[in-house]
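Researcher: Dear colleague, please comment on this protein.
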Amino acid sequence: MKKVLIIGIGAGNPDYVTMQAVKALNEADVFFVLDKGQAKQDLVNLRTEICERFITDRSYRIVEAASPERDAGTPDYKTGVHAWHSDKAKVFSRLISEELNEDEVGAFLVWGDPSLYDSTIRVIQQILAEGHLTFDYEIIPGITSVQALTAQHRIALNTIGEPVHITTGRQLREGLPAGVDTAVIMLDNGSGLRALVDEDVDIYWGAYLGTPDEVLISGKLSERIDDIEHVRARERSRKGWIMDTYLLRRTSNRDEA
């Protein structure tokens, strides 16, 4: 039976690749890489570097395919995401059907961890639910951008006895939920930060975590938001894309971390 590995490769630094991931890399016959265009060639290059660095048997194959784009113009966000996942399922199905032989192992290398803000697991499960293909699959966890962010800022993720809220910039527009003193924000186009600029919170922000282009900014949000917005615009213009994550903590709980 065919088998698919969904391997978390960590947040940008090849040193984040775990020993479990190295073992999985060496089990794969074919690596499926989704090309997101020239602007994001760095993401493809990192995957290639990881294969060259950690795989001992060079007989593996790399198969690239164009990555479908989500239609940002769809009025309903979740409807747009479901349509995007369906488009990805068609691409994944073709790759597994045509490029992976029986009893071979194929692998998708997922930035960070496959379970945190990534669609690969859902797409694979959708393909199996449709019933047209039969294969086994396994998930190998990776170092997340959240772990990389807190490590680089040398802070603990949580405060003593308190929860951590993980959300998106879209959800942050309504402010921090009641009772939440620490929040990690992913997938923010910038509007989430502005919604909280008048609140008494500290920010620990990072972009391109784990890569040579890594940028870190921290401090009181109201004092650092202009710097963050300037750096985001500059880096997006320079590279054509930006991948950033940040942690917000109410200032009153700063000393309890």
Q: What stands out?
A: Residues 175 and 196 are 6 Å apart (CA to CA).
